[in-house]
Amino acid sequence: MVTEHIVSKFDQDLSQLDNLIAEMGGLAEHQFADCIKGLVRRDTELAEQVIANDKRIDAIEVAVDQHTISMLALRQPMADDLRVVITALRIASIIERIGDYSKNVAKRTVAITQSPPVGPSRTIARMGTVVQGMINTVLDAYLQRNADLAEDVRLRDEEVDALHTSLFRELLTYMMEDPRSISACTHLLFVAKNIERIGDHATNIAENVYFLVHGKMPDESRPKDDQSSYTVIDGDEQETK
Amino acid sequence: MTEAIPNTPSAATLPLDSVSEAPRNVKYHTRDVNVFYGDKQALFDVSLDIHEHEVTALIGPSGCGKSTYLRSLNRMNDTIDICRVSGAIELDGVDVYSDEIDVVHLRARVGMVFQKPNPFPKTIFENVAYGPRIHGIATSKSELDFIVEESLSKAGLWKEVKDRLDEPGTGLSGGQQQRLCIARAIAVQPEVILMDEPCSALDPIATARIEELIDELRSNFSIVIVTHSMQQAARVSQRTAFFHLGDLVEVGETGKIFTTPDDQKTQDYITGRFG
């Protein structure tokens, strides 16, 4: 904030909002790291822990909701203050979604560990690292009100999309090679999709940070590289491999 | 096969209020207005256009010059001996400070409503009938009756006072008195109404009535309102001008001024960080 408000309680309310988002975001980042770790190490205990911890993120979202509603009613924020309140409301709901996806990955981990290990855990780990970095950076961008940093996150989503597409092809190949892997691979397809969605959500937060700083949504469309929706592997391709 | 999606305006480009539906005519054209009280300069090179059928709100901290600017529009500053005005203030292209302008006629065209309701110590009927009678707008009793009823109706007061028109105007409640003053201002069929904090002495219900009235009046008049309540400016106006220390800092569409103002000073003022 540039200058302080005449009513100092207003400043306290605004910083309380930042604290809640920081806590919620930190928790979501941690949950995501744990769900990937649980998947890669086939650690069901860690996965169960992720599933249980999601409640804490939901509880903070409720707190953010209440706090923003009372600020709108009692302080009538204007201009940049209004944007702080509105973006906090939006970002909290996005973080809650990120938490849900992490929980979903953890649930699938429990299922996947019941089958023998299948190949592409390295690509998943790689995707996880990139997405975790995006979450981390976008939260910094929010707390620093740094639109350039947010833009940087937006651009990184392209790599996640590319990894998702390649993972999709890889998993299809595994399933064609060995039908016994279909159960685990199907779960992994959903896991990959969940991680890709988390990347999209980090990008949405980045857009909200841009809006917070500049008062408008970023206009130029960002590069996308998710071709998994069009991906087909036919038998010929399989043989030439 | 793909069908072309018809071109629809995106939500971001839609106006917040009905301001930009058509280009508005400029009613008041003011350029480089400077106002001095003796040696003290109260306004510095203010250039602002007041549009027809729009409510223009003037906001800013105390002593910023917004009331001075408002009062220079219908030469209310003439009553102050040490007051000097320079620059161009044109109403429909005619300089209001030129020698040919009849000040009394000007003030009939440009009505004013003040902070405190100030009805004449006369009956409700006389309060409204006085202006049309002395300006020769109404000649017969029936014409006068018509104007009084019409003005009181437009001011949203007719139903409340129609059975007590011969009672003193000062006997009404504060909110009713203010609406009586608005009826008195519109009875002489002005083109512009200047309002200097018209709601600051009223309770929230009376304020809401006046605000509703302002919005209705804008289809017939151009309105300039000085207000200390930023929420009020946001609610009633289509354009907002922010004054600070005698300068016009920023003027623009009200939705923009209160969401994404261009100037840091405007931002600090409307968000309550001034000081």
Question: Outline of this structure?
Answer:
Chain A is an all-alpha fold and 241 residues long. Helices cover 80% and strands 0% of the residues of chain A. Chain A has helices spanning 8-40, 44-75, 79-112, 121-144, 147-177, 182-214, 235-240.
Please bin the fraction of helical residues of chain A.
over 70%
**How far apart are the termini of chain A?**
58 Å
Overall 3D shape of chain A: elongated
The ordered H/E elements of chain A are HHHHHHH
Q: Strands across the major sheet of chain B, in which order? A: 6-7-8-3-9-10
What percent of residues of chain A are in strands?
A: under 5%
Assign an overall shape of chain B. globular
Q: How can the largest sheet of chain B be summarized?
A: 6 strands, mixed
**How far apart are the termini of chain B?**
62 Å
- Secondary structure category of chain B: alpha/beta
Low-confidence runs of chain A = none
Q: How many whole angstroms does the radius of gyration of chain B measure?
A: 20 Å
- Helical proportion of chain B? 25-40%
Q: How much is the radius of gyration of chain A in Å?
A: 20 Å
| Biggest pleated sheet of chain A | none
* Count of DSSP H/I helices of chain B: 10
Strand tally of chain A, please? 0
